[in-house]
């Protein structure tokens, strides 16, 4: 929304939104005069608030009430009038570092712990997606002969998830068919070769490798590897759209915005039964937020959210990464009347922390 505001209009809009965030009560000019050093009279504030209402940034829920921010007003506030709290971001990162030990914890325990801490610090519902298999990094690969002519490819990722594919091995001529012990030795040599060349690469890269690098004597395994990797990709590269850690629901539902039972039921149903929709919203669309000139977090306010149960909420999210590859997302969800400076800082600090953690998990 393109609205050019004067400095005075910006000051009064910002003060109105801050007061409403703190009180959840419609804001009148008297409250702004008493609590904010705006340097103007109550009459001037009323006139400015009237102008802000005409351009759609404020509205009156009742004729005799004060004003409350619209979604467009919050958007101007977030884009032009605030700076995320650097102090809080440092505090969040220190808290995560102090209370979470990625050296000793499993991947799932690490994310659960992070989600709990963020929910406590932000006062919002925290959403953290599990890392996507498509971007998981290879830790170990092993080829195992399970019976004559049948070989299993086993892949262990950096998250210690195991995936396997069982395929038929191409038959050599009957006269030159090696016995089982020879195949076992060759499979171990090929496994060593592949681990040397592939450790630290994502599963998506495996499907695009040039198997011609294998020594000529091991070419019999080339077609098998192509087929088994294709099968592995088919099974594992489908996004794990329902794996989202959710924390902090009870506290958020105490907010006055969630006083209607039907609204609460819709939100709970979304969080529990339709996580695939949330996943697409906070992860698949995340790259749009990282185009040049846009913030590193995705901020969706009110009606900007396409999902009906959260069209009265704000969703702030950011990806955590390994290098340049997005692994998952961290998000906070709350009423549009939330402390955006704090929420943005919390999400940013958490995504930075998890990115650092996953660089640790990256096999060397």
Provide a descriptive summary of the structure in words.
This is Heat-inducible transcription repressor HrcA. GO terms for molecular function: DNA binding. Keywords: Repressor, Stress response, Transcription, Transcription regulation. It is built from 13 helices and 10 strands. It is an alpha+beta fold and 364 residues long. The chain folds into 3 domains: 75 residues, Winged helix-like DNA-binding domain superfamily/Winged helix DNA-binding domain (Arc Repressor Mutant, subunit A), CATH 1.10.10.10; 169 residues, Beta-Lactamase, CATH 3.30.450; 102 residues, Enolase-like, domain 1. Strands 7-3-10-9-8 form a 5-stranded antiparallel β-sheet, with helices on both faces. β9 and β10 form a beta hairpin. It is elongated.
Brief description of this entry?
The protein has 364 residues and is an alpha+beta fold.
Topology:
Blueprint: H1 7-23, H2 29-35, H3 42-54, E1 58-59, E2 68-69, H4 71-81, H5 86-99, H6 107-122, E3 125-129, E4 138-147, E5 150-157, E6 162-168, H7 180-198, H8 203-206, H9 220-236, E7 244-247, H10 249-252, H11 261-273, H12 275-284, E8 298-301, E9 313-322, E10 325-335, H13 340-361
Antiparallel strand pairs: 1-2, 3-7, 3-10, 4-5, 5-6, 8-9, 9-10
Helix pairs in contact: 1-3, 1-4, 2-3, 5-6, 5-13, 6-13, 11-12
């Amino acid at each position: 929304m393109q609205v050019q505001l004067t400095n005075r209009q910006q000051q009064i809009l910002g003060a109105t939104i801050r007061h409403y965030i703190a009180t959840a009560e419609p804001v009148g000019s008297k409250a702004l005069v008493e609590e904010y050093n705006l340097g103007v009279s109550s009459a001037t504030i009323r006139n400015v608030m009237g102008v802000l209402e005409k351009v759609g940034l404020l509205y009156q829920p009742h004729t005799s009430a004060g004003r409350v921010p619209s979604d467009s007003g919050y958007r101007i506030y977030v884009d032009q009038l605030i700076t995320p709290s650097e102090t809080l971001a440092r505090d969040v990162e220190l808290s995560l570092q102090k209370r979470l030990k990625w050296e000793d914890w499993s991947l799932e325990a690490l994310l659960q712990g992070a989600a709990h801490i963020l929910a406590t610090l932000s006062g919002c519902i925290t959403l953290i997606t599990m890392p996507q298999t498509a971007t998981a990094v290879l830790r170990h690969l092993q080829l195992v002969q399970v019976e004559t002519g049948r070989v299993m490819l086993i892949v262990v990722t950096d998250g210690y998830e195991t995936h396997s594919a069982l395929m038929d091995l191409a038959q050599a001529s009957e006269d030159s068919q090696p016995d089982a012990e020879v195949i076992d030795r060759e499979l171990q040599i090929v496994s060593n070769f592949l681990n040397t060349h592939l450790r630290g690469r994502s599963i998506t890269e495996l499907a695009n490798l040039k198997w011609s690098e294998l020594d000529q004597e091991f070419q019999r395994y080339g077609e098998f590897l192509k087929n088994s990797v294709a099968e592995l990709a088919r099974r594992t590269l489908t996004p794990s759209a329902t794996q989202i850690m959710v924390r902090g629901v009870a506290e958020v539902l105490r907010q006055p915005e969630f006083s209607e039972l039907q609204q609460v039921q819709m939100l709970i149903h979304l969080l529990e039964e339709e996580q695939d929709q949330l996943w697409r919203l906070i992860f698949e669309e995340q790259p749009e937020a990282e185009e040049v000139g846009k913030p590193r977090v995705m901020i969706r306010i009110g009606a900007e959210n396409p999902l009906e149960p959260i069209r009265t909420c704000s969703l702030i999210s950011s990806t955590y990464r390994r290098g340049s590859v997005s692994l998952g997302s961290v998000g906070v969800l709350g009423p549009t009347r939330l402390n955006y400076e704090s929420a943005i800082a919390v999400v940013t600090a958490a995504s930075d922390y998890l990115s650092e953690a996953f660089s640790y998990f990256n096999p060397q």
